[in-house]
Amino acid sequence: MKTIFLLLDSLNRNALSCYGGCVPTPNFDRLAARGIIFDRHFAGSLPCMPARRDLQTGRLNFMHRSWGPLEPFDDSMPSILSQNGVYTHLATDHYHYFEDGGATYHNRYDSYDFIRGQEFDRWVGVVQPPHDGYDRRFHPLQVDRKRDGHRLQGLINRERIVEDADYPIVRTFDAGLEFLRRNASADGWMLQLEAFDPHEPFHAPQRFRERFPTGYEGPTLDWPRYREVRETPEEIDEITANYAALVAFCDEQLGRLLDEMDAGDHWYDTAIVMTTDHGFLLGEHGWWGKNQMPFYNEIAHLPLIIVHPDHAAKAGTRIDALTQTTDLMPTLLSMNGCPIPPDVTGHDLTPLLNGSTDSVREAAVYGIYAGAVNVTDGRHTYFRYPADMDTRELFEYTLMPTHNFDRFDVAEFAGAQLREPFRFTKGVCVLKLNALPNAKRSPRQGGFACCRNQLFDLIADPKQLRPFENPEIESRLCAAISTEMTLHDAPAELYHRWAIEPA
């Protein structure tokens, strides 16, 4: 068995033409025509590295931990594959793997290619940046003179990206294709081909940008800030057009992979699993980005396409079963004949590929550490916020105390305790640390009028514009949340924080 796990970052489901989206994506259409399309696939833990912990471990982690590394007790999908004779290789430009908060993920693969230059990857060293030139070329939204503001490093990196071949996504697909060609005659491997795009900044070659004209006439504007929309209509159009251009660029890179699959006749022995970690709000609901705002479906409802040589006869069919990110780890293990560890809470999707009509789950629970707990049953979505985001008890449970870009501060260890094991920590005690509100983790949700309990009917209101009240539905969805909390051995304080009754 050969498997290509194709993972993109911030790929909006509603941008893809195979999902009825607004951006022409002929190569995603080609992939969908060969594969099985999942129509109700949802996120788990958010954002980037928490989602990847879900992908490697097959269980939700946002109830116990913010953005952080794989823990010593975590099951790891690539490690399990390798232990069972399946060679694993990671080709990626997702630089968060190589920061403090992601440093234990990439070494789980037998080998890896790391492509430099995305966003504020600390790549190009410039002591005296040309600030005045940046002020002229770029919109004030994306200019920052502080080194700790990250955007300055992004502008410095951008100076090195001139031709198509310079773009990190092109070099990432180059690396993936090189692995495929080198190992085309070998059996028993998984290639994780992972692109950071179409994550912001939405920087694509001009030939793609020209496909999406706007009336905007200002300096370069392709890097929105995570906040409420304050831009003019012309600025909004410009940002969304740049996102569309970058999606089209991603589509072209996917086409290179599909062309290689065609030329080498790899479809008969190679599976492709394509998905993303989360979506991105592009002005919908009055927001840019992810993390702080409610997790509307633009963020949480994800694309998933699986192409499998054993199911070629089902090409182009669709699956309506409710699935989520944690289900991919056991599915990839099952596809490669590997055992699924007992601590995995995700569900193997291969029965659905085989034609089963049984549901694999009744509900999908998703969220970000310290924020709302969200749930969907496929018909409804429900956001449940703490009554008070900042005063309710909250702790980090970890043996790997690092945040996104840095170590925990010494102050965060004040009052630290060694807590008895959770069911999934394999008998290992963990540190219980007070979650300080000013810690260097991803921004919390909350602080906004829209951050309140909201219930939506996805049939009557698919764009989630009209929240409504129904105590019976809310009670049922709270019970589903409680069931998932019990399954994941959620700490006791979260039941109080979210006002959820234990199952």
CATH topology of the largest domain: Alkaline Phosphatase, subunit A
Unreliable runs? none
Helix content: 25-40%
β-sheet strand percentage: 15-25%
CATH superfamily of the largest domain: Alkaline Phosphatase, subunit A
Please explain how this structure is put together.
- With 503 residues, the chain is of the alpha/beta class.
- The protein has helices at 26-34, 48-57, 77-83, 131-137, 151-158, 168-182, 206-209, 233-263, 297-300, 328-335, 350-353, 471-487, 492-498, and strands spanning 2-8, 36-42, 45-46, 87-92, 111-114, 189-195, 270-276, 281-282, 288-289, 301-307, 318-324, 364-368, 373-376, 380-384, 395-398, 417-419, 430-434, 454-457.
- It starts with a strand and ends in a 5-residue tail after the last helix.
- Helices cover 26% and strands 17% of the residues.
- The protein contains 13 helices and 18 strands.
- Helix 1 packs across helix 8 (233-263) and helix 6 runs parallel beside helix 8.
- The chain folds into two domains: 2-353, Alkaline Phosphatase, subunit A; 364-498, no CATH class.
- The chain has an eight-stranded mixed β-sheet, with helices on both faces. It has a five-stranded mixed β-sheet with strand order 3-12-13-14-18.
How is the topology of this model organized?
Layout: E1 2-8, H1 26-34, E2 36-42, E3 45-46, H2 48-57, H3 77-83, E4 87-92, E5 111-114, H4 131-137, H5 151-158, H6 168-182, E6 189-195, H7 206-209, H8 233-263, E7 270-276, E8 281-282, E9 288-289, H9 297-300, E10 301-307, E11 318-324, H10 328-335, H11 350-353, E12 364-368, E13 373-376, E14 380-384, E15 395-398, E16 417-419, E17 430-434, E18 454-457, H12 471-487, H13 492-498
Parallel strand pairs: 1-6, 1-7, 2-11, 3-12, 4-5, 4-6
Antiparallel strand pairs: 2-10, 7-10, 8-9, 12-13, 13-14, 14-18, 15-17, 16-17
